[in-house]
Amino acid sequence: MLKKVFLLFFSVLYAFGVSAAQIVATVDDEIITSQDVQDRIDLMKKMFNVPEQKISEKNVLNALVDEKVQMITAQKAGISLTADEVKEHIAFLETQNQMPAGAFEQMIAEKGVSEDSLMSQLLSGLFWMRYMQQQDLKRPKVSKKEVDKQIKKFMQEFKEPGYLLAEIRIPFDGNPDAAEQLADSLFDRMFKGETFTDLALKYSKGKTADQMGDLGWVKPGEMEKEIDDVLPQMKPGQLSKPIKCKDSYVLLLMRDYQAPLDSDEQEVIQASQLVLPKDGYEKIMPSLKEASKSCMTFTQFAATHGVKDSRSGALPEMISSRMPLELKQVLEGKKMGELVGPIEMGPYALFVMKCGSRFISILPSREDIERELEAHKMEEIAEKALKDARKKLFVEIK
């Protein structure tokens, strides 16, 4: 009798919990609640450092639906996982991400995120991988012609400038004048201090709205002609005036620029940096001067004395022509081992030293291109399989 009472008590609690956390989607007999969505958003922000502005609840919900579809489809196909297999998969992911054993469990505790949300993401991927393996799919073939075409594309891209862009797109929606007024208003608001990302999230109606308007790297000819005509006149950090296109007004932010390359042979630079508080850095200048006698001692000094989380120490190798403009200007013409700084950057003082230089071909090998094309074809097969699986299940998004 007591057992029945407890079962009834917990059933009431469960029902109360589900009603408190609104059901937002159903996949067969499985439900997804608003709490599941919030748990995944918290996971993305706290564990994977995804900026809140880049997180779309709609995209998160669709990802959770896909995970349910993957797990249910795999389980219906007779696929199961043992506890040891799950542990092995987590250990593999830790090794792949250069993390010590037990790091996932420790991070969950430290970040205060939902273990269920993380495990759902990990297990759905593992279930789906086993399901796709079970399908006994033929390895996609990549022809010599496809590889040659990709190499030609790479070579052409080297010879063209590249623009790292973000957009706010205001469609006409039958009223071009109203769209123009809104675009002009947003342009003025940004000059008064409002951020491009906030306004893109709120007002942009383009496909990139959920990504803060981020377009990524764009080459000439990939956008509308009206935008292509404006790009050569812009500089990194510059905001364009509203551009009238066929069916919308567009505000562009040029985040960075890549000059055309004459050759695929490019200089790769290794540098180290030290970031210190602008106020009071003079106190350690004698020690810094002593440590700057070699790149090794400067790098060690930077790693131990730099502002926390400032990436003080050795920087990743960078292709000279693709370096951030500010850093490229700082290092241009400097000798190996020469200390540059202090360079004032807001509340910080930056010191930089060029520590190494070599020339490489930035063109991928034929083997790398073939593997990349093959992986892309496998992704397309997996995406089609997921769409087909979704059609076979009852999926309702409320």
Describe what this molecule looks like in 3D.
Helix content is about 50%, strand content about 20%. The protein has about 400 residues and is an alpha+beta fold. It folds into three domains: about 25-140 and about 365-398, Triger factor/SurA peptide-binding fold (Orthogonal Bundle); about 160-260, Chitinase A, domain 3 (Roll), CATH 3.10.50; about 265-360, Chitinase A, domain 3, CATH 3.10.50. Strand 10 and strand 11 form a beta hairpin. The model is unreliable at about 1-20 (pLDDT under 50).
> What is the arithmetic mean of pLDDT?
85
Strand content: 15-25%
Just give the CATH class of the largest domain. Answer: Mainly Alpha
Helix-strand makeup class: alpha+beta
> What is the strand tally?
12
Number of helices: 14
**CATH architecture annotation of the largest domain:** Orthogonal Bundle
